[in-house]
Amino acid sequence: MKDFRPCLKGLWSLLVPVLPQVLGSAFLFCLQVACGLVFVWYSKRVVDIATGALDLSLRTNIIILILIMLAQVILIVASRRVEGYITVKAKLDIRSRAFDKALKSEWKGRDKYHSADVVNRLEEDIRVVSEFLCVTFPSCLVTLVQLIAACVMLFSFSSSLALILIWIMPVAVISSRLYFRKMRSLSTELRGLDGQIQGHIQEHLQGRVLVKSLSAEQLVEDKLDALQGEELTKTSRRLNYSVLSRFFMQAGFSAGYLTAFIWGVLGLQSGAVSYGLMVAFLQLVGQVQRPVASFSSYVPAFIRALSSEERLLDIEEMLDDKSGEPVVLDGLLSLSIKDLTFSYDGQRDIFQHFSCEFAAGELSAVCGPTGRGKSTLANLILGLLRPQEGSILLSNGSQSVEVGPNTRANIMYVPQGNTLFSGTVRENLLLARPGASEQELSEVLHTAAADFIFDLPLGLDTPCSEIGRGLSEGQSQRISIARALLKEGGILILDEATSALDPATELTVLERLQDRYYGKKTIICITHRLAVSDAADRVINL
Description:
By secondary structure, this protein is of the alpha/beta class. The protein folds into 2 domains: 4-316, Up-down Bundle (ABC transporter transmembrane region fold), CATH 1.20.1560.10; 334-541, 3-Layer(aba) Sandwich (Rossmann fold). The protein has 14 helices and 11 strands. The strands form 3 sheets. The protein has a 5-stranded parallel β-sheet, with helices on both faces. A hairpin with a 5-residue loop joins strand 1 and strand 2. The longest helix is centred in the middle third of the chain and has 54 residues, at 217-270. The radius of gyration is 34 Å and the shape is elongated.
């Protein structure tokens, strides 16, 4: 659990951009409070006029009372409208910044957080924080104004009876302090559990075919039950702290209201209090107690916001990829790897003083058993990973640059597996080049032997389900190749890009790639397939 100050500072930094709108919303609510207090005053006048204590026009004062109530209704509607808009706007802005940070953060080969947990932070935690900043915080300001105004009016009616506040305020403050730290700890743990549960559900729904094939449905369900059981236990503990605090709070409120009521009844009996004053006083007691009750509810809201901000700070603290301005080299490109040493987290070296050359315009095959670092080599060339020692140089003959995030623009890349996103085939392709023409799309699909797209009823507008479902593995792989070919770059890396293709289709893809790019681009094929290594100019064994 992070210290209190960084989380509070983080909340403040998120509040500053929306502070003018939040204060505007608070002002509308303050006008609503003012109308409420004026309504109390005129309620007293109407009752006193009706009972003969005041000699004024009852009709006029009733009309004023109705107009005040109408103004309250209008202000309630307007303030809720403003509050709802700024809350959604703040949530979208915070989410955009956090998503941008997560997307551009440095990748070290292993993600620190499960993708579902990150999504949970971008959805639920941002919702909690934005609602606190745009709803709870201005409500707290308004409640404070309401409490002060109601107390002033209450003291003007009876300073002695107004001291019942002494019964209420200490209970609110003490109870909130008693369980603040424990509630924050439990809230942080519960937010973490939410992420674990979401990750468990997401992963196993995506892989439900595998779960069925393993007959592991019951094991998966049992793990979910265990996680939810832990969540229920911690939620119950948090509720116990909250219930105890609310018990003492409500006991104080009931005692205060009962005291005010008995005082009013005795005053009526002795003639010291008018009916109008009693009605006004009981309303004011409610207007004092409601703010105090609200403050008690703001404490857990503040705790939840701190817990959520703590989780958002984890994303904010991710290291940037530091890509900087792209460095794009013209002409044929070559790659030179010299004395490369790399390991994940300082453990077993994947590469130790490794050197090799990828000549410009040639087709090279990188082969080797599983676990020897073939895909790691691709990630190093892409600048996704950084070697501990050695260098990777990209050159066009006249200019050489060290490979890093800013040289990624020179590389066309097809990763392993099914890498299509939800959306249409067209949308997946245009990720590589948003402005690509229909002819360019047709050309790359033909090169990747993905002409089958044009035989489908919807053609390029054929939808792809999550992770490319709805298409076969081989079809998805060919669309992924076509997408990579749309991207500008002098180097094409194919990481097991034909592994799901039958031999005939694989041969067609290789022939078309060579016809179109041989001597024009440097092609690196990471493969186990003999057809690929046989077609290569050179084979690099790891």
